[in-house]
Amino acid sequence: MVQMPVPDSGILARRDDIVRALYALLPESCVIADAVARRAYECDAVSAYRQLPLAVVLPRTTAEVSAVLKYCHEAGVPVVPRGAGTSLSGGALPVADGIVLGLGKLNKILDIDFPNRAVVAQPGVTNLGISNAVAHAGFYYAPDPSSQIACTIGGNVGENSGGVHCLKYGLTTNNILGLELVLIDGTILRLGGKALDAGGYDWLGLLTGSEGLLGVITEVTVRILRRPATARALLLGFPSSETAGDCVGQIIAAGIIPGGMEMMDRPAIHATEAFVNVGYPLDVEALLIVELDGPQVEVDHLIERVSAIADRCSAMTKRISTSEAERMAFWAGRKAAFPAAGRISPDYLCMDGTIPRRALSQVLTRMTELSQHYGLGLANVFHAGDGNLHPLILFDANKPGELDKAEAFGGDILKLCVEVGGVLTGEHGVGVEKRDLMPVMFSEIDLDQQRRVKDAFDPHGLLNPGKVFPLLSRCAEGGKMHVAGGALPHPDLPRF
């Protein structure tokens, strides 16, 4: 079970004073102190891990965010930034001695600039809300996580979210131009802008995917794109995950970069079809959705090439969308795959790891063996084009020990990803879920360097504590040591 830092008893004892100070900074409607009301913030989308926060604040402006952070910095109170709470890595899990800083009230689009193809939005604007705001002019925002109807642009930046179209159009980091953020001491910074690139250090690259450890984002400038003239999708069924994986590799090797290329295995296909009824074939072991976009003549040509590759890879079924409604129906199933898994299991853990495409068949085979070893079900849904896996581990939390088994199973999957040359996360972040696996991928020198960056922004470790960095190594991180009552712990041990 995931462990969080031990709460500071001194902060807990000051709770009433802290709440009064927050009421002095914000209107009564922007502070949640009641225990029942705080329950809404005790977890994010990883509901297996829960912790009641000390208090919740919902600032309405950058100035209010700055005031709250400045107070918390001076009072030594930890802060957990939170967007829509759709994090799948426990990234917004509260700490008992800290406040949750919710950004849901900062939910306005501030500027739409079609000539510069940019939108300036507050962090609480939903991902899909940006595309909807510019759709009338034929534009859209490319990154499209499955939770795009709910997840917010601020959270997308924090986790460097991707989506089904990230193969061709990139992750969040490839689609943002500027940020406004507030540091833990209340300092407000503006980085980048509407230009395609900013001079100097790559601060946007550093902050995108920083999971709320370095600052609180209060404004985002994103790049918008023209909608492709034509977009069509192929729905391809295969006799095995291995043949589907081979098809993925051959498409990329042929120099074809689809707008999106997604894969589902049999359990995911059946759960999804029962949920959305879009006509997925039920007699196949694996399903590929391959979308091609661009000028119509190019799309028609690429469909022929992909169709021929699928035939060579033993495709059993093949459907090509003939209308926009049919194309969207193909994607409706894939977008609903995660909630659909609730039809086949009381609980599930959605993992997130990335592997080289060449290792796809090997990893899928090994995951099946692990499923049998742990006696737990598994459904695979993932971004096949860039090797970003999202295996769903099926379990029942009401059965003693099953959550522990599911966590161990997930850990073995992530270790496997690293073993074959991949990484621990593609878009969900590290959070608490992968925190203690960081040494599998990084050496202590690597982790120390990352901690030093964290210390430069947040020297007292008040922003999103307990996330990303393994807890067991914290006694000496950044060259620091905890001293209580003026006495060194274990004074007989040699120091380093």
Write structural notes for this entry.
- Its cofactor is FAD.
- It comes from Elstera litoralis.
- By secondary structure, the chain is of the alpha+beta class.
- Among the domains are: 109-226, Uridine Diphospho-n-acetylenolpyruvylglucosamine Reductase, domain 3; 230-339, Alpha-Beta Plaits, CATH 3.30.70.2190; 345-426, 2-Layer Sandwich (Alpha-Beta Plaits), CATH 3.30.70.
- It is 33% helix and 19% strand.
- It has helices at residues 9-13, 15-25, 35-38, 62-75, 127-134, 153-159, 166-169, 203-207, 241-253, 266-276, 296-312, 324-335, 337-340, 360-374, 402-419, 438-441, 444-457; strands spanning 31-32, 55-57, 79-82, 99-102, 109-113, 118-121, 139-140, 176-182, 188-192, 216-223, 225-226, 230-238, 260-265, 286-294, 317-320, 347-350, 353-354, 377-383, 388-395.
- Strands 12, 13, 14, 15, 16, 17, 18 and 19 form an 8-stranded antiparallel beta sheet that branches.
- β8 and β9 form a beta hairpin.
- α9 crosses α11 (296-312), α9 packs antiparallel against α14 and α14 (360-374) packs antiparallel against α15 (402-419).
- The model is unreliable at 474-479 (pLDDT under 50).
